[in-house]
Design goal:
The complex is a heterodimer of chains A (815) and B (287). Chain A is an alpha+beta fold and 815 residues long. Chain A is 25% helix and 25% strand. Chain A folds into 3 domains: 31-125 and 194-243 and 248-273, Aldehyde oxidase/xanthine dehydrogenase, a/b hammerhead (Aldehyde Oxidoreductase, domain 3); 288-465 and 652-809, Aldehyde Oxidoreductase, domain 4 (2-Layer Sandwich), CATH 3.30.365.10; 472-642, Aldehyde oxidase/xanthine dehydrogenase, molybdopterin binding domain (Aldehyde Oxidoreductase, domain 4). The longest helix of chain A is centred in the last third of the chain and has 27 residues, at 538-564. Chain A is globular, with a radius of gyration of 28 Å. In chain B, the strands form 4 sheets. In chain B, strands 4-5-10-6-7 form a 5-stranded antiparallel beta sheet. Chain B has a 4-stranded antiparallel beta sheet with strand order 11-12-13-14, with helices on both faces. In chain B, strands 1-3-2 form a 3-stranded parallel beta sheet, with helices on one face. In chain B, a hairpin with a 2-residue loop joins β8 (152-154) and β9. The longest helix of chain B has 14 residues, at 271-284. Classes of the chains: A alpha+beta (815), B alpha+beta (287). The interface between A and B is medium-sized, with 32 and 22 residues. The structure holds flavin-adenine dinucleotide. The site of flavin-adenine dinucleotide has 32 residues of chain B, from β2, α2, α7, α8 and α9.
């Protein structure tokens, strides 16, 4: 009998919830340091121009201005994944975000006024805003900082992957479908705008940064490279972060600029973005064109996929350029597939550059793939649920790309949403006849509202992703003489609730009340290394790391407890601040406390033969004190570094890149108003293979938030651009959905108990948004009998498609 | 964004301030004003804050035989919560209920919605359909009344003179023989809240016990430089029985409504879309 989990699996509220809702939380915007100055950035007036001259003299003379810098005033390295991004631009501007100059002044108002006094002479160029234009022979080179190892001067990065015999599989295909999809720019729109406070100490030449980065240790290293400093001379402290979603994976120019202003003035400097600046100058989800050709044999087995992707890289290269790592994974390994050939090219343009964004390319890939699966089913005359179930991934499968599915809830997820949504009774027939669904409406000329249902599923890393040389996380844990526990973890909190989950694990394992557990995770000078918050990895990697540390700590505590209890038992139970020996009743039984099923957790093999006597215990704090004050005079402290079992992929992008894999499926019902073109999402059925539910409340939060982001991607959110300029840098016209738009969400967690995960859990953070747009598009197609190849599906696009009887495709841009 | 602010607490102080100040704007809920000033700072501006003025005729609501009069400072929230308005003029209730969000409705005023004179003003659209009258008060303490159809003179322009403030709005009572009127507000946009109308339609159609239409007010929003009353579409309905309107008549009605529209293409929608949708929702009144 396994001991029952007492804390894990319960709905413990986020530990910082009270602070956040009462306004007590200290965000970067709330930081005020003694003598602090305010920084502001002058950006280019033109997305593409020669900068002929910059005159800062008037700005420097303005009272209250401490410092004005341009590229000429600083000695720095480029930033960015390809080091192709100058912090301050010299000679030319290539993007509407380009930083031309920066000032530090006594007040925000003076800083702004100083910016107005800076005179820049531009020679405006035409600029290139289309990837195909950029690839033309005669196109000028946009970014001059790259090595030029590609065939075309405006290519920033390429990816090529393949498995299986594509030509052979083409021949075996009974049907082949080919489509080109266009995906929009979407922005994170974090509630807290970008912010950083830099404080340089002229005496010891050390730099302190209060930053909202998601990856403090990589940030420290990148910052050091940019500023030509020693990484260890830079200390990064994270205040409470008001939203990340991937936007804070890259280092952005305003951050080293703020550091430079502090270094120059010797005073703390703070830069805060306005909301408009946030829309203009923070990253986006990559826009891309995906050309997908896919085949199916006569029995409905998927045969091959051939993919060509052109991504608009913008003017500089960010982590966003590496999203094909994830995109190719879905194309190669979501559903069983015999052959795959994948090419992706990131192309420089004078548009704004992308960054990473929750899902990391996967919402785009899944949209294209799941749309084409519907089309293949149509060709075959096969049921759309059946074709998915037939090809679904399975436990034990090793995919063409080398992913090992040790556990796999793909089929179960699909099955669950198909059943729960009553998919088959709801769906319109696929031969185009629509069910009249609005019996309540008193229409007399057919129905105004058309209902439809769509299916989609997804695959994502569930146990970190080894894209850096280490995907690990360190933990230090200590218990003080009063029985309180402190977890110092390398991982960080960006609002996802990882602190709470880590505290729950410690409470579970050590029997310490949650109120007595503190999580320290904000300071690079204090905490051990971690790669950062991304790839849905924190609960998995930091959780395993913590459990590893607890195991070591418990060995020490057990030993002392044994001494105090005068027992030679080797198994102990921790509960209510006490340690109970588990007396072994069966001497022949192995006393091995390690169990493969859950390597690091408290579950003890064959506990049946152990007996706990409730009056036979020693208090945990007493054990700690005895360890400290008597032999062996040791503190109750342990360190552990956990590195997932995943492998760095080889040069062909093959290998088991994650410790486990997450699966999910969604069935979504929509109602389309044919009078206005509005698509109303009524019900979303979600099943997600989460491995194990650690905290239902926090999991629900991830699901609901992710889904709303997915609905926005499908229907309303698009950063509109014209010739390199952003047309809607505000919430008024960037249509992020609100609480009033939340559809009915029916969530069904699927527990597959992955042996690699803490308590069997997998990463959950990104998955909820990944299949949503695909399922909505499939539902709209089902409702209207039309094809969607373009996101977002705006009312205008729907009306245009309904109006044009000739074309059967929703493609028109609403400009 | 910087400005001076003065806070009169009585109508007398208010009119005094209007007389004295050279370069001023009124601020009621300031939900439009602050957005406007942030976009276009106005140096040396004084904002005369109307929110502290204590005067029932300016802030309250009153019912009489002639109809209902609201002070200009009556808020969207107060409209939503008022049972009498909900019963008598559903179109007004709906328009206020669909405005912005709960938080904004607490401070946004009916006077502000009219005086901002946006083509997409929701409450304004409902009040045009209701054929309301605007009461303007000048610095000599005289009032004049202009019908709402002449109050809007262009995009963001009104009949208000520099020495006038909008004091109150009167909605004429429903025809006394009417029963179960057809009244509502249709707002088209992408979000369910915090949305500015891409197209809107307000209708208040009064019918007698037999369902015969006695009076009709139909107004369009976000489709022309100002909110407009679709006069000929209203006339077309008089004498018809609401429930018996034929498909052909519906279409004729929608065509008439559309003849008042001269929408623009902007980043939220094309003119084509606005027309298409206006036509459809006009028909939908009878469905
Ligand atoms: C996020 C957001 C969402 C919104 N959504 C909607 C919406 O859905 N529908 C909609 O119609 N509007 C919407 N608005 C606009 C605005 O909220 C409304 O127009 C509101 O009714 C304005 O009222 P106010 O009291 O805030 O006006 P204010 O901003 O105080 O004033 C607006 C203008 O009228 C003038 N003014 C005000 N009162 C008087 C008076 N008594 N006499 C003379 N002049 C006066 C002011 O000088 C100013 O020029 C939205 C605004 C925001 C910020």
């Amino acid at each position: 009998m396994k001991p029952k989990l007492k804390v894990i699996g319960t709905s413990v509220p986020k530990q910082d919830a009270g602070m956040r809702v009462t306004g007590k939380a200290i965000y970067g915007h709330d930081i005020k340091l003694q003598g602090m100055l305010y920084g502001a950035i002058l950006r280019t007036e033109h997305p593409s121009a020669i900068i002929e001259s910059i005159d800062t003299s008037a700005a420097r003379k303005l009272e209250g201005v401490y410092c004005v810098i341009t590229a000429d005033d600083v000695d720095v390295n480029n930033i960015g994944y390809k080091r192709d991004h100058p912090i301050l631009k010299k000679g030319e501007a290539n993007c509407t975000r380009d930083e031309i100059a920066a000032v530090a002044a006594e007040t925000k108002e003076i800083a702004k006024q100083a910016l107005k006094l800076i005179k820049v002479k531009y020679k405006v160029r035409k600029g290139i805003y289309d990837v195909h234009e950029a690839l033309k022979e005669q196109a000028p080179q946009i970014n001059k900082f790259i090595s030029g190892k590609f065939s075309n001067k405006n290519i920033a990065e390429t990816f090529h992957y393949e498995h299986g015999n594509l030509e052979e599989e083409k021949k075996k295909s009974a049907h082949i479908v080919s489509r080109k999809f266009t995906l929009p720019r979407m922005t994170h729109a974090c509630m807290a705008t970008s912010n950083v406070t830099a404080s340089y100490n002229m005496l010891d030449k050390k730099l302190l940064l209060y930053s909202s980065t998601q990856v403090p240790f990589l940030y420290q290293r990148d910052m050091a490279h940019a500023l030509k400093m020693n990484p260890s001379d830079i200390r990064v402290i994270q205040p409470i972060i008001g939203g990340g979603f991937g936007s804070k994976l890259d280092i952005h120019p305003f951050e080293p600029i703020c550091a430079l202003l502090s270094i120059k003035t010797g005073k703390p400097v703070q830069i805060l973005y306005s909301r408009e600046e946030e829309f203009i100058a923070s990253p986006i989800r990559q826009p891309m064109e995906i050309e997908l050709t896919a085949g199916v044999d006569k029995d409905g087995n998927f045969t091959f996929r051939e993919i060509n992707i052109v991504k608009d890289n913008g003017a500089y290269t960010s982590w966003g350029a590496t999203t094909p790592f994830v995109i190719m994974q879905s194309f190669s390994s979501l559903y069983k597939l015999k052959a795959c050939r994948f090419n992706a090219t990131a192309v420089y343009t004078n548009n704004v550059f992308a960054g990473s964004f929750r899902g990391y390319g996967n919402p785009q890939a899944t949209f294209a793939l799941e749309r084409v699966i519907d089309l293949l089913a149509d060709k075959l005359g096969m049921d759309k649920a059946e074709i998915r179930l037939k090809n679904a991934n399975e436990k034990g499968e090793v995919t063409g790309q080398g992913l090992h599915y040790d556990t796999c809830g793909h089929k179960e997820c699909l099955d669950t949403v198909i059943k729960k949504s009553k998919y088959h009774s709801f769906r319109n027939s696929d031969n185009g006849t629509l069910r009249n669904t609005n019996k309540n409406e008193s229409t007399n000329n057919g129905s105004r509202f058309k209902k439809g249902i769509g299916l989609a599923s997804m695959l994502h890393v569930g146990g970190g992703a080894k894209i850096y040389r280490s995907d690990g996380c360190g933990t230090t844990i200590k218990i003080d003489p009063y029985g309180y526990c402190t977890i110092i973890t390398g991982s960080n909190e960006i609002g996802q609730g990882s602190e709470t989950v880590l505290a729950m694990m410690a409470s579970e394992e050590l029997g310490i009340d949650l109120k007595k557990i503190k999580v320290i995770n904000t300071d690079t000078d204090v905490k051990p290394w971690d790669v950062g918050v991304h790839a849905s990895r924190t609960s998995f990697v930091a959780g395993n790391s913590l459990l590893g540390a607890i195991k070591i700590l418990k060995e020490k505590l057990n030993k002392k407890a044994g001494e105090l209890l005068k027992s030679d038992d080797t198994a102990y139970e921790y509960e209510n601040g006490n340690i109970y020996p588990l007396r072994n009743t069966n001497i022949n039984e192995s006393t091995n406390t390690e169990n493969k099923a859950s390597k690091l957790t408290k579950e003890i093999a064959n506990t049946d033969s152990y007996i706990r006597n409730d009056s036979d215990f020693v208090k945990l704090d007493k054990v700690v004190r005895e360890m400290h004050f008597t032999e062996p005079n040791e503190l109750a402290v342990a360190n552990f570094f956990y590195e997932p079992s995943s492998k760095f992929q080889d040069k062909d992008f093959k290998g088991n890149v994650s410790g486990s894999y997450a699966f999910a499926a969604q069935a979504i019902e929509v109602e389309v108003d044919t009078y206005t073109g509005n698509v109303k999402v009524t019900d979303i059925y979600v099943a997600q293979d989460v491995g194990k539910v650690l905290n239902p409340l926090l999991l629900g939060g991830q699901i609901e938030g992710g889904i709303l982001q997915g609905v926005g991607y499908a229907l309303t959110e698009e950063l509109l651009m014209h010739e390199g300029k952003i047309l809607n840098p505000n919430f008024h016209n960037y249509k992020m959905l609100t609480a009033a738009d939340i559809p009915n969400i029916h969530f069904f967690p699927i527990e597959t108990n992955d042996k690699e995960g803490p308590y069997g859990a997998k990463g959950v953070g990104e998955a909820p948004l990944i299949p949503t747009a695909a399922a909505i598009a499939n539902a709209v197609c089902n409702a209207l009998g039309l094809e969607v190849i373009d996101l977002p599906i705006t009312p205008e696009k729907v009306m245009k498609a309904l109006a044009s009887k000739n074309t059967e495709t929703i493609q028109t841009k609403n400009k | 964004m910087e400005f001076n602010i003065i806070n009169p607490v009585s109508v007398k102080e208010l009119l005094g301030a209007v007389k004295k100040e050279k370069h001023f704007r009124f601020g009621a809920g300031c939900t439009d004003l602050l957005m406007e000033l942030r976009k276009k700072p106005d140096e040396g501006l004084t904002v005369i804050n109307l929110a502290q003025v204590k005067d029932n005729s300016f802030t309250g609501i009153k019912k009489s035989a002639k109809g209902i009069r609201m002070g200009a400072m009556f808020t969207a929230h107060q409209i939503v919560m008022n049972e009498e308005l909900k019963k008598t003029f559903p179109v007004l209730h709906d328009s206020a209920h669909n405005l912005a969000s709960t938080q904004i409705r607490q401070v946004a005023t009916v006077g502000g919605n009219l005086c901002t004179a946006s083509p997409s003003g929701d409450i304004a659209c409902a009040l045009v359909a209701l054929r309301a009258d605007c009461e303007l008060l000048n610095t000599t303490q005289k009032t004049r009344t202009v019908n709402i159809s002449t109050f809007f003179t262009g995009v963001r322009q009104t009949a208000l003179k520099p020495n006038e403030v909008l004091y109150g709005i009167s909605i004429p009572a429903n025809h006394k023989n009417t029963k179960n009127n057809y009244s509502g507000f249709i707002k088209v946009g992408t979000r369910r809240s915090m949305e500015c109308s891409v197209v809107s339609l307000a209708y208040h159609i009064q019918v007698n016990v037999e369902g015969k239409i006695l009076k009709a007010g139909v107004a369009i929003g976000a489709s022309a430089p100002t909110v407009r009353l679709a006069e000929s579409a209203c006339d077309f309905l008089i004498g018809k029985t609401f429930k018996n309107i034929t498909q052909k008549e519906k279409e004729e009605f929608a065509d008439k409504v559309l003849s008042y529209a001269s929408p623009i293409t902007d980043i939220r929608a094309t003119a084509w879309y606005r027309k298409e949708v206006l036509y459809n929702i006009s028909k939908s009144i009878f469905e």
